[in-house]
């Protein structure tokens, strides 16, 4: 069975992408090419004090997620939001399969998979299973 769900946890240093099915998990770890360094804004300084996003890093994460029916984007800080803006601009098809964006500190791999499976199990329960509802005739 193909891995239909995925979860991507990322910060500005690395990403952990898990593709999973009910009984299998595949993990990919992607290192940033230009890891984030804290930039402090000083009064009177020119610029906003933000580091530039690593587009090659974001491109590799997107490639690891392609083919997933649905995926979840999680992580601490602003990296997940920057990645979201990247896919909105460069990979709208991937954006369409995004189920949710949620904050998440630094979980272990096991905690991340457990959380993602729980998310998709709950999301799947909220969707109608079929057009026919018990006790009603099909329209």
Summarize the structure.
The chain is of the alpha/beta class. It has helices at residues 55-65, 79-90, 92-96, 109-126; strands at 5-10, 14-21, 24-31, 70-75, 98-103.
Secondary structure layout plus pairing:
Blueprint: E1 5-10, E2 14-21, E3 24-31, H1 55-65, E4 70-75, H2 79-90, H3 92-96, E5 98-103, H4 109-126
Parallel strand pairs: 1-4, 4-5
Antiparallel strand pairs: 1-2, 2-3
Characterization of this structure:
This protein is of the alpha/beta class. It has a single domain, classed as Nucleotidyltransferase, domain 5, CATH 3.30.420.60. It is 33% helix and 24% strand. The chain is built from 4 helices and 5 strands, in the order βββαβααβα. It has helices spanning 55-65, 79-90, 92-96, 109-126; strands spanning 5-10, 14-21, 24-31, 70-75, 98-103. It has a 5-stranded mixed β-sheet, with helices on both faces. Strand 1 (5-10) and strand 2 (14-21) form a beta hairpin. The longest helix is centred in the C-terminal third of the chain and has 18 residues, at 109-126. Mean pLDDT is 82; it is low at 47-51 and 130-139.
